[in-house]
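Support request from a user on the community tier.

User writes: "When I paste my structure tokens into the form, the page sometimes reloads and wipes my input. The last time it worked, I copied everything first. Here is what I submitted, just in case something in the input itself triggers the reload:"
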């Protein structure tokens, strides 16, 4: 797929790495928010 050699490929790779890092952060945040939501949901059910 990547036939470009040299600067183009390097640029693509660094962009890919950046996106992978961003993805990791977002997945972590997503898990955190899901846990938070579950906690809030269960505490709301306790109040009812």
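"...and here is what came back when it finally went through:"
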């Amino acid at each position: 797929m990547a036939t470009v050699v040299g600067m183009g490929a390097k640029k693509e790779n660094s962009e890919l790495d950046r996106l992978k890092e961003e993805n990791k952060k977002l997945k972590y945040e997503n898990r955190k928010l899901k846990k938070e939501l579950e906690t809030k949901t269960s505490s709301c059910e306790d109040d009812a």
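Agent notes: The reload is a front-end session timeout and is unrelated to the input. The chain is about 85% helix and 0% strand. The chain has a mean pLDDT of 85. Escalated to web team.
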